[in-house]
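Running log. JK asked me to keep both predictions on one page so they can be read side by side. First protein, sequence followed by its tokens:
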Amino acid sequence: MNAVLAPPKSSNLRQLSETGWQSKTVKREMRDNLTRMLAEGEELFPGIVGYEDSVIPEINLAILAGHDMLFLGEKGQAKSKIMRLLPRFLDPWVPYIDHPELPVHEDPYRPITSLGKDLIARHDPEDIPIAWWHRNERYSERLSPGTKFADIIGEIDPAKLTGGVSMGAEEALSFGLIPRMHRGIFAMNELPELDDLVQVGLFNILEERDVQIRGFPIRFDLDIAILFSANPATYNRSGKVIPQLKDRIGSIIQTHYPHDRVEGIEILRQELADDLDGDYPVQVPFFMYQIVEEITAQARRSKYIDQASGVSARFSLANFRNMVASARQRGILHGEKPAVPRISDLGHLYSSALGKLELDLMGSHQMSEKHIIDSIVAQAIETVFGEYVEEHGLAEIAEIFRGGVRVEVGDQLPSSQYAERLQSVPPAWAKAFEVNASEDQAVRASCVEFVLAGLYAMDKISRSTQFGKIEYEF
């Protein structure tokens, strides 16, 4: 969100009028500010990667058209993150009538409640107090499951009826989230999970911009931008979203996963850069970034995974954090600064990956999640290693050695031991370090494991695992 600057100094309606402030609708604010930002070349959605030529242009068109929007995409495609950035296109501050009994932030020039209209009609401008509402506060969101009509639309307040207010009077109403966000942006996540009755209330708001509670003829000319998010598998299922509501949503913005590994790595670096600092810093070789992101790419192509449920970007983030944590633990135990992740650190991915993948029951054939994760990790290592073989010719290393050479590795072994164990190996092994040129023992240990795991994936060497340690044999 934007930094909160000091609000304007106008404190009553007369002072506001003297500034020349003009009232605008929410969607007009968004359109005007987007227009200015486009003209000035300002970054529109900071932190959003890979959508520059696809999603962002569609959002721009929707804002310029004054549409409510539905973000349609699988889990982990930054739908909520984008919606939370849209208040950037609101004015920094808007004035409202500062009265404790007003249920909404009333536009001083266009009040919608009886009390707001009465205040304007009965009082001199200098007697009408004005306060300022920052754009960071003009956004609210709700998750659909469990949401009731009273939560987001409103309900008759029994306490007010007991106090003598007529049931048909405006004062008897208790406003829900949407009316309270008058002059703001409201987002509803997982739209298909919303109760049919609430959906009916929403399409009335989208069409007429008014609120009707329990059939009482009380109308409020709401000024609001409404956003939705949904998963294609449920949104397109018959009966999940009523047709009248679908018809009233102005633009559908379709999101997607990163088109290539480069975009995925950029997201990892952006989201997790701070995780690598601290008293025990971690330095991640580029090939480990590639492997973590390739694991996600393989999962998104795997026949064992239910692709309709998607494989979230959070899968990559959780696996990366797990790998970094394993390396950091080794750094703490052995005093290695910085610690450097290795292939053996990926042996702990079960804890971060289990539960994030939905198995395809027809394709998995009684395979466990662990077996599937092992298969996906192995395929990712083979894919990335194959690219380095083409660049550095690393496959030749396996042909150089004579039988009987054994190299033991593991996530808890100090990096210094790798150099000792490779002393019996011919000098040709130095070719392995071309993948990440460095004299640092921890980096070189990571390179050793990468090449060993890659050679094993290509069936060049054998491997055995016992008690968390891996032994490769040439």
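And the second, directly underneath as requested:
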Amino acid sequence: MSASVTITDTTKSQLEELQAEIRLETGQTVTQQELLEQIVLSVEKRDVIDSFRD
């Protein structure tokens, strides 16, 4: 299943920078989808939840 996600130009730019760093440091090319999936799997859920608190 594939879904579209709208992101800001700033976020897209940050993803592209991270992709480039991964390529430089590991020699691997990753898609933005792979990158986002890894970020979601790696993140501390509590940190994300807490970031939305006042």
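Observation for JK regarding the second prediction: The mean pLDDT is 94.
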